[in-house]
Each structure stands twice: as C-alpha cells, then as structure tokens.
Amino acid sequence: MNSMTGFGAASSTIEGGNLRVEISGVNRKQTEIAMSMPRSWTEFETALRALANAAVSRGRVQISVNWEPNAAASSTMSLNEVKMQALSEQLPIIKSQLGESVSISLDSLCRLGILSEEKKAETSKEEIWPSLEQMTIEALIAFTRMRGEEGEKLKAEFHERINTLRQYREQIIQLAPSVITRHRENMLRRLEESGLPLPADDDRIIKEIALFADRCDVSEEMSRLASHLDQFDCICARDEAVGRPLDFLCQEIFRELNTTGSKANDAQLAQLIVNAKTELEKIREQVQNAE
To answer: Do 97 and 188 fall into the same domain?
Structure first.
C-alpha cells in the first residue's frame, strides 16, 4: 500500500549550471501530473509525464525542474590587442596636444571595444536531457519510497481501526438477543399496567414477539459486516493501488451499520452503531490518502 502523499528530490551540477528536480504528491481521485520547468524546456514535458505516470496510479503529482546557469562560466572577457596597440600609440600624441596626462578607465576600454564580453553558448538540450532524465528518476525513487513509508503507517492504522469495528460487531451480536427479551418484558408490563394482563405463552404475545424478532434480526447484516472487514484486511495487504476498492468497502460497511441501526430499536444498540460509524468515518478520511 502506498500513500498519495510524498516528496522526493535530486540535484546535480553539470557543465553550465545546477539542475534540481523536486516531486511532491497529494491526494486526488484521479491521476493528475502538474509540471513546472523553464519555458524553453517544454519539449521534455511529455517524457517526464511518462516517467511519472509509470510510477503512480492515483493522486496529484507536481514535478518542478529548476535550472540555475553558472554565471561565472557563462561569459569571458576578451581583449582586442590590435585596438589596444593602436590606442597605446595614440596616447602620447593626445597627451602632447592636451598638455596633461590622460587616464583610461575600464569603462572607456569597454566603450572603445578594446575589452568586450563574450558569452559562451548555452548548454544544449541534448546535453541537458540525460541529466534531467536521471535526476527525475532519482527523485521519483525517493518520492515512491516516502509514499511507501506513509502507506505502511496507513496500513497499521487501518488494521487497528478495523479491529475496533470487529469489537463493536461482537458487542452488537451479544446485545441483539436481549433487545427481544426486553421488548417482551416491556410489552407484558404495559399490558398489565393497562389492566389487560396476558400470559407470556398467549398466542398473540408469541406472534407479536416473533414479528418483532424478525424485524430486529441483524444476523445478515453482521455476517456481511464480518465479510467486509475481512476483505478490508486482505486488500490492505495487496502490493498495488488499493484506494478505490477500500473506498467502496467503506461505503458497504456504512450500509450494513446503517441498516443495523434502523433495526436497533434499542438505546444501547443505537449507541454502539454511532460509535462504529464514528470509527468508520476516521477510516474513510484516511482512505482518501491511499493510492
């Protein structure tokens, strides 16, 4: 089991600059890949999406590619020796005519074209791609590892909460027969208080109790609930995406609890159902984070 939440990053220093790839994920019902990279690299988007799609099956994945060119290596200063020689020859003449010394600043040398900046060619996309692909793969490995670790924590929590639901189920099964007994006792007491006492073995009493017992029978719901809880554990043990089937099982478990609650007709039983639904809601919230 994997969580849809995770983070992974990888970076590398290559000729021309520093490359860093960051990948993060949050929960979504469907697969969604979002990209962020230099505009001039958009041709890499399809290949990066393919790498991400191969690693995830559900969730929103954000891939951020950052490229920082090496400013020191991006340009050099060039000296035009011919112009420099010509200038040195003219300086004494200028000095004699002006009658004073002449100073030359770096700014003047640049304006005269004696010193000039030569920008090196940018790192080509053919040179970038091998490193970009490798960094993306490494970031995906770290991202997947973290999702797996989060998934193991989810699995442990699911196991604990499913066992709690099993305990509630056992309590419901133990309490259900007493509901019928209390109903019979209450009915006989009300008849006696109303001046219409009837023996417990009266056919009308027996028929009424039988009808009530049939309406309150939750054995089928409890049997299906046990099956759903067992299936939940089995699905959690699978080494694949389990979010959708777990979400479906949560709906089925809620259905059985809801039906049992509608049949309860007893305050204690109703409270157990409320507690079980509360526990189930905690499971359902966490299922939304499972891939």
So the answer is: no
